[in-house]
Amino acid sequence: ASAFGCDLTEYLESSGQDVPYVLKSCAEFIETHGIVDGIYRLSGVTSNIQRLRQEFGSDQCPDLTREVYLQDIHCVGSLCKLYSRELPNPLLTYELYEKFTEAVSHCPEEGQLAQIQNVIQELPPSHYRTLEYLIRHLAHIASFSSKTNMHARNLALVWAPNLLRSKEIEATGCNGDAAFLAVRVQQVVIEFILNHVDQIFNNGAPSSLENDENRPIMKSQTLPALSPPMKLVSLEEAQARSLATNHPARKERRENSLPEIVPPMGTLFHTVLELPDNKRKLSSK
């Protein structure tokens, strides 16, 4: 049976795999060949994505190093996201959606790490293993952000709607402030997990994390409170609003509608001024 659209636990049990082969193959290919600008943000050619999906779907082991895929590396990244998006029960599961969002919305900042790990340990074993594999892969990709412009926040932005979904939101197809906040919360959850991958997946007791002074705990994102509409919005809000149109709850999705990634805040620029020849000579005296 095809891995696409199949329940993760059932598929892994029937195939004898620890993590889905399609995810493992795509991740290994991208780590070797896909350290390029906009990986996972830019979409591949639709026909290549469909061809690759058919090859994986027929239980083949596609040769991703074929020229057609090496020339369209983004189609492999697109397929990887497509696989996650089509899981009948998302990787972080419908059942735990509220617990994940509450962990970053209502917990004191210093308690979020233990709370998130508690929720992750409630995942079915197949989902836990697959999530750990994917998050470690994405954290590795984030380490090349100087080459790809895809640091943890941008990776969370494009991956969150594929990993963390709400049945209620999908059923009602809500938009506006509610959809914006939902997408923002999803992004914060995934970004938090990416930034704490080693602490979360250390197989230790969650309670030991709170008092472990040897582990550096990165400051987490705090959620913005909903406020009346304003003419000016921050870059993050603009990105999140643009992503809201891509949410799986909406009937029409366009993978490539994310905004261009801008340099991180604090990037320094300098201006070079050309001096006329006569002034250049004076300055050299």
From TrEMBL:
Q: Zinc-finger as a keyword? A: no
Keyword Secreted recorded: no
MF-aspect GO terms = GTPase activator activity
SUPFAM superfamilies given in the database record: GTPase activation domain, GAP (SSF48350)
Q: Which part of the chain is the Rho-GAP domain?
A: 6-201
* Pfam families in the cross-refs: RhoGAP
Give a GO biological-process term. signal transduction
Q: Per UniProt, which keywords does this protein have?
A: GTPase activation
Q: What is this protein called?
A: Cdc42 GTPase-activating protein-like protein
Q: Which organism is it from?
A: Equus caballus (Horse)
